[in-house]
Specification:
The complex is a heterodimer of chains A (117) and B (140). By secondary structure, chain A is mostly beta strands. Helices cover 12% and strands 50% of the residues of chain A. Chain A is globular and about 45 Å long. Chain B has one domain: Hotdog Thioesterase (Thiol Ester Dehydrase, Chain A). Classes of the chains: A mainly beta (117), B mainly beta (140).
């Protein structure tokens, strides 16, 4: 079942296990996130990918408290299908995450979460 | 320097994508302080709240303002792409939509189209919520 998590970002497949969280997320062409960002060259704001990472951590029982490092390697545009994965946080609450489009890395990084009560 | 509105066209973000609205001060060529908010009808708002991670977008826009203030006229509205974030910390999980936010940006490095900034964002008159180092690449 497709689940909208944010305006114009729809999880079409999602799984969490001992290794972490994985999902395919569709970037809807109609997303309001493209309005004004930018005229004639619609690009998903980079923080939208980080909102997905925040969602992933929540699904794993953690609240996002830091992003030690993030690299934006490829722009995300209307209609892209994102393959997102976040490892289960280690003892320090840190985990690696990545976002791919058709296999190519778009966003990579390390997040740190605090276990939620 | 008196507060002034961010002029339309100074940065390429328009309409609902524009989160910075006023330049509060630019005490040095490498520093700018901007005010802004995430409106309640923004795509970033969920149940009246804005995730703190979204404040990094406001910080990136304030960095774009700083670069535009120093840019040549023909380079002023080129998008600057956020290429990296380091050492981002969040002291709150979210903030209310429409809250007045203050972004302080200091350029710490520039090499051709690449620039690096130390940024903080917080609610007006309150403790900062986000600190980070951002790297951008001027497009075009």
């Amino acid at each position: 079942m497709a689940t909208p998590i944010f305006d114009g970002l729809t999880i079409v497949e999602e799984a969490a296990d001992a290794a972490g969280w994985r999902a395919r997320v569709r970037v809807e062409r109609s997303s309001r996130m493209f309005a004004g960002h930018f005229d004639g060259e619609p690009i998903l704001p980079g923080v939208a990918a980080l909102l997905i990472v925040r969602h992933a951590l929540r699904q794993l029982g953690f609240a996002l408290e830091a992003l030690p490092s993030v690299r934006f390697r490829h722009a995300v545009g209307p209609g892209d299908l994102l393959e997102v994965s976040a490892a289960r946080p280690d003892a320090d609450g840190q985990c690696r995450f990545e976002v791919r489009i058709s296999g190519a890395l778009a966003v990579t990084g390390v997040a740190r979460g605090e276990r939620r009560a | 320097m008196p507060e002034r509105a961010v002029p339309e066209g100074l940065i390429p973000h328009r309409g609902p994508a524009r989160l910075v609205h006023a330049i509060l001060e630019s005490p040095r060529p490498d520093v700018v302080v901007c005010a802004g908010r995430v409106p309640a009808d923004s795509a970033f708002v969920c149940d009246g709240r804005v995730a703190a991670v979204v404040l990094l977008e406001m910080a990136a826009q304030a960095a774009a303002v700083l670069q535009a203030l120093a840019a040549t006229p023909e380079g002023a509205t080129r998008p600057g792409y956020l290429v990296a974030i380091r050492a981002a910390t969040f002291r709150a999980e979210d903030v209310p939509a429409d809250a007045v936010l203050i972004a302080t940006v200091r350029r710490t490095g520039q090499a051709g189209p690449l620039a690096t900034f130390d940024v903080t964002v917080g609610r007006a008159g309150a403790e900062e919520i986000v600190t980070a180092t951002l790297s951008t690449h001027a497009g075009g």
